[in-house]
Design a protein that fits this description.
Lactate/malate_DH_N, alpha/beta, globular, 11 helices, Malate dehydrogenase, NAD(P)-bd_dom_sf, 14 strands, binds 1,4-dihydronicotinamide adenine dinucleotide, EC 1.1.1.37, three-stranded antiparallel beta sheet
Length: about 325
């Protein structure tokens, strides 16, 4: 049998963890030929709940699941890990200022980045899901100087999938026939879902943008504020769709994106499209050979430029804030 891939999931006892672990163990993330060993990393108070989830995983008798370990300490949780899905984060509490939120998350993602640096496998790949995802990824990467920065990514795939679904409904075209959408910027309400380079049912996505009212009043805000709409309807934040996006992101990273298409991911900027170097920013990306590449050479018109710049300005402000706190 092939050597199992070690996958660490933080926040394993949370909502997303519950929707994620079973799909990883089923083979949805790494394919039907790759066994996985799951490492569940939680805070001590949630270890008991993680044990319950592990019992259920056992009870599924997944043929690809080679083992489950539960940890409440990052060094052990990340030792030898190949894929780290950083889901657990500190949510914004009532009356919490942004600086308090960033500081609280710095206390989580700094030590986790260090533990990844010190003990993870040489090929480790990290996806940060826990919010604020882009800046948490920046903090983790800053604590892992021996790991290439490109191995730290933040999840904007849920935004990408939400955009696909909105376009599908508007155009009456199956999602499978929509290609080359892109999410730019921060995983926040400032993100910019870009249709201008898309192909929708074989026609240029630009045709849909001719309906300016739909584009600016409906499509862009619906995608950007979908998380809040889910909370309003469900009484809890997106979990299964977030877990699904984490599966999609990691699968494409490891196994590659389809020919002729691209997806969206928060990756460390090398200065592409004028995004300051070092920011973890969502771009249109392809993957091959286990590496993300930013799609280069796209023409960005004034409409898109203004929106990309606004989201990138927010990312820069978050970076300045965590710098001031000494977290990066
Ligand atoms: P949840 O509150 O149900 O679960 C979070 C879990 O993380 C809890 O079990 C908690 O004990 C654990 N945790 C907290 N600190 C930890 C630490 N230091 N180490 C290990 N585990 C720790 O939250 P849920 O719904 O699972 O969401 C998790 C995160 O994902 C949130 O930050 C949420 O905002 C974010 N999210 C991101 C999305 C994206 O598109 N990037 C989409 C949806 C959610």
């Amino acid at each position: 049998m092939t050597t199992p891939v070690n996958v660490t999931v933080t926040g394993a006892a949370g909502q997303i963890g519950y929707a994620l672990l079973f799909r990883i163990a089923s083979g949805a993330m790494l394919g039907p030929d790759t066994p996985v060993r799951l490492r569940l990393l939680e805070i001590p108070q949630a270890v008991r709940a993680a044990e319950g989830t592990a019992m259920e995983l056992d009870d599924c008798a997944f043929p690809l699941l080679a083992g489950i370990d539960i940890h409440d300490e990052p060094a052990a949780g990340f030792a030898g890990t190949n894929i780290a899905l950083l889901v657990g984060a500190r949510p914004r509490g009532p009356g919490m200022e942004r600086a308090d939120l960033l500081e609280a998350n710095g206390g989580i993602f700094g030590p986790q980045g260090k533990a990844i640096n010190d003990g993870a496998a040489d090929d480790v790949r990290v996806l940060v899901v826990g919010n604020p995802a882009n800046t948490n990824a920046l903090i983790a990467a800053a604590h892992a100087p021996d790991v290439p920065a490109a191995r730290f990514t933040a999840m904007t795939r849920l935004d990408h999938n939400r955009a696909l679904s909105q376009v599908s409904a508007k155009a009456g075209v199956p999602v499978a026939d929509i290609r080359r959408l892109a999410i730019w910027g921060n995983h926040s309400a400032t993100q910019y879902p870009d249709l201008f380079h898309a192909e929708v049912g074989g026609s240029p996505g630009g045709a849909l943008t001719a309906d300016a009212g739909w584009l600016t009043e409906d499509f862009i805000p619906t995608v950007a504020k979908r998380g809040a709409a889910i909370i309003d309807a469900r009484g809890a934040s997106s979990a299964a769709s977030a877990a699904n996006a984490a599966i999609d992101h990691t699968r494409d990273w490891v196994l590659g994106t389809p020919e002729g298409d691209w997806t969206s991911a928060g990756v460390v900027s090398k200065g592409e499209y004028g995004v300051p170097e070092g920011l973890v920013c969502s771009f249109p990306v392809t993957s091959s050979g286990g590496e993300w590449q930013v799609v280069e050479g796209l023409e960005i018109d004034d409409f898109s430029r203004e929106r990309i710049d606004a989201s990138v300005a927010e990312l820069s402000a978050e970076r300045d804030a965590v710098r001031e706190l000494g977290l990066v």
